[in-house]
Amino acid sequence: MSKQRKAVSLISGGLDSLLATKVIQEQGIHVEGINFFTGFCVEGHTHAIRKKDQSKEKRNNALWVAEKLGIKLHIIDVIEEYKPILFNPKHGYGAHLNPCLDCKIFMVKKAQEWIVENGFDFIITGEVIGQRPMSQRKETMPIIANESGADDLLLRPLCAQNLPETKAEREGWVKRDELFGFSGRSRKPQMALAKQFGFEDYAQPAGGCCFLTDATYSHKLADLWQARGHKEYEMDDIMLLKVGRHLRLSPDFKVIISREQGEGNFMQGYRKQFISLKTTSHAGPLALIDGRVSEADIELAARLIARYSQGRAEEQVELEVRQLSGETRLIKVKPMLAHEIPKAWII
Amino acid sequence: MEKISLKLHRMLCPMPVIKVQNCVKMLPPGSQVEAICTDPGVLNDIPAWCRINGHQVLETRREGDEYIVLLQVGDEQ
Q1: Which pTM value belongs to this model?
Q2: Residue B13 bears catalytic tag
Q3: What does the domain layout of chain A look like in residue ranges?
Q4: CATH class of the domain at A6-210
């Protein structure tokens, strides 16, 4: 009796990895999923934070895909290990701060380590040649295989027929003629295959869950690094960049102002880490001050925050200023007028 | 029987799932893990993780701002 071969599949939660996994399962291979959490795959976080999104289904797409396929899913925290990739990507950034090619190499490398530790035979991904302008091109496919160290243990079932044979095909673990030769940006072949497998509900677009591909988010991250004078971040930084309006009033500090109640509730959890302000005379946002501030800076921030409160048209708005120690005091300020807020403040 | 309580306040999914997963790995079958979270997403994600990995959810409940999931470690790790 031949040995039961085992593959690990990189599951992003999108359609391509769902299909790639299913194609290999159909060939009798035991497949388990692996999902790497860099800290930037945060779609679900925003849903959890914003009140207007509370009614949205908060499913984790990678878990949902694994359940759909009936496979185990191993979610690996790579937050710390991922930092050097983001700080200094060998192959550079994409349109924003997305180091897509280095990221893919990193993840395949981690998967390669995982199969060695866990006695699996090969790795599969949902990559398709030409699907993505930076990381999924004909030229990048061998780079990913080589630089990750996976070499011919990396099989891309959806475009395998356009690539050299891998070990899984050569050894007869999988039949090459039952794999696919997809290429290009069109999603039609994947959608047709999904239909063939009976998958009607799946996440769109494939793999688009990384905040680093978002222009505004990347801009806020670049601002954070510039203000601190070095590239570094903690998980709380990543989260707060997704929450509220960010306005940098001086090189020394920025103000994060909640846009609605859900964000305000979430930001309350940070009141021991940041000086916070909240309007008391009128309904208004919660704001955090990130950086070093003088008394004059706090008053300037208070005037800005008052602008976003229900008292914006009043002569005076009262706010509570809370220090890191928990000590509070009240201040009264005149809300800023719209034209007093320089566009350059808005990050 | 071992029972572990994890306080996972302010963590957003999938971090609570990762913490539960890493805790469960260390425990023998039959042990219980109680995850006390503030992200409502855990009410979907932890049970989904349990279903695909062979663990049993004994209870999910909300207490004020906390979302609590109690699970029992399955036989097959």
Answers
A1: 0.91
A2: yes
A3: 6-210, 243-345
A4: alpha beta
Chain B residues in contact with A44 by the CB 8 A cut-off are: 12-14, 41, 45
Question: Which domains does chain B show, CATH number per domain?
Answer: 3-72 (3.30.110.40)
Q: Could you report the per-residue pLDDT of A243-289, keeping only the tens digit for each?
A: 899 999 999 999 999 999 889 988 998 999 999 999 999 999 999 99
Write down the ipTM of this complex. Answer: 0.93
Q: Looking at chain B, which residue has its C-alpha nearest residue A40?
A: B14
pLDDT attached to residue B40: 87
Q: What is the 3-state secondary structure (H, E, C) of chain A?
A: CCCCCEEEEECCCEHHHHHHHHHHHCCCCEEEEEEEECCCCCHHHHHHHCHHHCCCCCCCHHHHHHHHHCCCEEEEECHHHHHHHHHCCCCCCCCCCCCHHHHHHHHHHHHHHHHHHHCCCEEECCCCECCECCCECCCHHHHHHHHHCCHHHEECCCCHHHCCCCHHHHCCCCCHHHCCCCECCCCHHHHHHHHHHCCCCCECCCCCCCHHHCHHHHHHHHHHHHHHCCCCCCHHHHHHCCCCEEEEEECCEEEEECCCHHHHHHHHCCCCCCEEEEECCCCCCEEEEEECCCHHHHHHHHHHHHHCCCCCCCCCEEEEEECCCCCEEEEEECCCCHHHCCHHHEC
Q: Give A265 to chain B, closest Cα distance, Å.
A: 10
- pLDDT at residue number A31: 98
**Contact assignment for A60 to B14 by CB distance below 8 Å:** yes
Residue A48 and residue B51: Cβ atoms within 8 Å? no
Does the beta-carbon distance from A77 to B15 stay under 8 Å? yes
pLDDT band of residue A320 (cuts 50, 70, 90) is very high
**Smallest CA–CA separation between B45 and chain A, in Å?**
6
